[in-house]
Request: fold
Amino acid sequence: KYPVIKLDISRTFPNLCIFQEGGPYHDMLHSILGAYTCYRPDVGYVQGMSFIAAVLILNLDTADAFIAFSNLLNKPCQMAFFRVDQGLMLTYYAAFEVFFEENLPRLFAHFKKNNVTPDIYLIDWIFTMYSKPLPLDLACRIWDVFCRDSEEFLFRTALGILRLFEDILTKMDFIHIGQFLKKLPEDLSSENVFTSIAAIQMQSRNKKWAQVLAALQKDNREMEKGSPSLKR
Reply:
């Protein structure tokens, strides 16, 4: 029913050679993804889920991995992306851009000038929770902090990565920015990434991430009712 699952599994951490057909974790990964599509047919399978499930399989037994996978995807941010809730995804992008402009105004202006929108790079990063674009050990460290700080840290990490490569990215055009962010350097240092993340301030005009996101969601609801909030 979901041939894309089989295709995605073949492309999940190919360098490890443990999730591909004949590998020790192939059947476990297939079972968890198949079980989830039965458990949540309203969500089904979306490309990128295989990376999240694979990371959990490397750390938990099958039953616990399935429970953790289901609970993780049930978080508001993950559910918005995996259900492709366009309105909510746009709200997340808008919130992200508030902190992007606040922290990296030069790069933000360069991206605007070149029409580089957040969806070009954030979708892949959020869908796989950085387990695809980053080295596995670094992605696992990001997951550790995500479990403590929740969705805010996923977007703070994105800003940290952009900050780390700001000087390179400001010299690139649309095509090269997209290519670079799609395939980040493989020799990324965990120390450099986390130092860059630590320099990001998740506060804008005395409002934290959750407050900015809530305000944008409120504005969207009021716009849908025909009475947009003028207060910022």
Observations:
- The radius of gyration is 18 Å.
- The chain is about 65% helix and 0% strand.
- The longest strand covers residues 203-204.
- Confidence is low (pLDDT under 50) at residues 228-232.
